Amino acid sequence: MPEFTPQPSCADPEDKNRLSIAAARQRIADLITPLNGWQRTAIRDSLDRILAADIISPINVPSHNNSAMDGFAVRFSDLEKESTQLKQVGIAFAGQPYSGDVKPGECIRIMTGAVLPPDCDTIVMQEQVESQGENITIHGQHPKGNHARYAGEDIKKGEVVLAKGRRIIPADLGLLASLGIAEVSVMRRIRVAFFSTGDELRSIGDTLESGQIYDSNRYTLYGMLIRLGVDVIDMGVIPDQKEPLRQTLIEASQQADVIITSGGVSVGDADYVKEMLVELGHVDFWKIAMRPGRPLAYGQIDDTLFFGLPGNPVSVMVTFYQFVMPALRQLIGEANIDSMTMQVTCSDDIRKRPGRFEYQRGILYIDEHGQTKVKTTGGQGSGILHSMSYANCFILLDEACDGLPANSVVTVQPFAGLI
Ligand code: AMP
Ligand code: MG
């Protein structure tokens, strides 16, 4: 009987030839320690940056009890069941409080945002009031505290309003301004160097000879990196030759926190990149059980993280979105790095063979009944770059799935503007 050596099973997470997506993400995360550099910045410049410290409210918001309506501020204990007669003794505007007393049987006219006098606890809308000079008649019943906004109701002094690790959005700028905060501490920006590898690649402006193509990966990478808010170092196109690759990798590792390359990580032309990486750092080559984007290299050259993405243009974007983006977010200290997913009906048939997890390109749209649905972009080849331009989401299909009929419910991951 011939001797039989068992091979690692497909499900074996340690099988480097077929790493699951979750295992790859975990291994990437395990190597990353968030940076600790930070800087102070004016709040307008903090947009899209990551907070380096909690923001503690220095004040109550609102700062005083105030009115949510134009109407009359009254003492609840004065109100009768059917109707109540009161005497108007003053008026309060936003920014111009009424400073006198409001005694039993009295009330004041009050505008939205005006300070509620300490004697009053309830506001009656002006539509439910008849006024003749200072004589006020209030009709109907009104719950205690109606239309009153209380000091600290929105935010209490000393409360954490925005937590460390948050990516600042426009709403946060308004919130910070409402608290009178002019400057915040944000994480330092990281530097990401990137280059394309391939003898067939030409730059825009060159004439293409037979077999040559324009380098597109550096452009999509540039766009995605800028959207993430990192500083970029574009190192150009490097031919499939040892010496230029070695020099570029050394130079990149001296300048950047992260290096991203595209191409040359599959078998064949892969060898030079692989050889150089083995020589210069610790880099693993993985075959991930996914489509597109199977070959991926990950490791370090000195302290610099290295990602070797596949060459296919769509694979570059998929592997960037699924692996590089969460890693960069972790590195800059961003707390919430999970991408949102949702379940929607797919109006097209989906073609897929079982075996690998697939990220198909989808278009979320609203149908004639107002329902959010998804359709596919059609052909799913990993060289079809225009599919990424039309798509606004990935359709996530698990390994076992062997295609789906139209009107199946699928999980989608919207790009949220990054791609
Ligand atoms: P590779 O991973 O180097 O074998 O490349 C896989 C495929 O992607 C080949 O068809 C390459 O020509 C193509 N490709 C590699 N790099 C780029 C690039 N920067 N821009 C456009 N296509 C590329
Ligand atoms: Mg190549």
What fraction, in percent, of the residue positions are helical?
Answer: 10-25%
- In DSSP terms (H or I, runs of 4 or more residues), the helix count works out at 7
Largest sheet: 6 strands, mixed
What small molecules are bound in this structure? adenosine monophosphate, magnesium ion
Strand order of the largest sheet: 7-4-6-5-9-8
Over all CA atoms, what is the radius of gyration? 31 Å
What distance separates the N and C termini? 55 Å
Structural class by sheet pairing and helices? alpha/beta
Shape: elongated
Low-confidence stretches: 1-14
Look at the structure and give the mean pLDDT: 92
How would you describe this protein?
- It contains 7 helices and 26 strands.
- The chain is α/β, with parallel strands linked by helices and 419 residues long.
- The strands form 7 sheets. A 6-stranded mixed beta sheet has the order 7-4-6-5-9-8, with no helix packed on it. Strands 16-13-17-21-20-18 form a 6-stranded mixed beta sheet, sandwiched between helices. Strands 22-24-23-25-26 form a 5-stranded mixed barrel.
- A hairpin with a 2-residue loop joins strand 20 and strand 21.
- Bound molecules: adenosine monophosphate (AMP) and magnesium ion.
- Magnesium ion binds next to loops.
- Adenosine monophosphate binds next to loops.
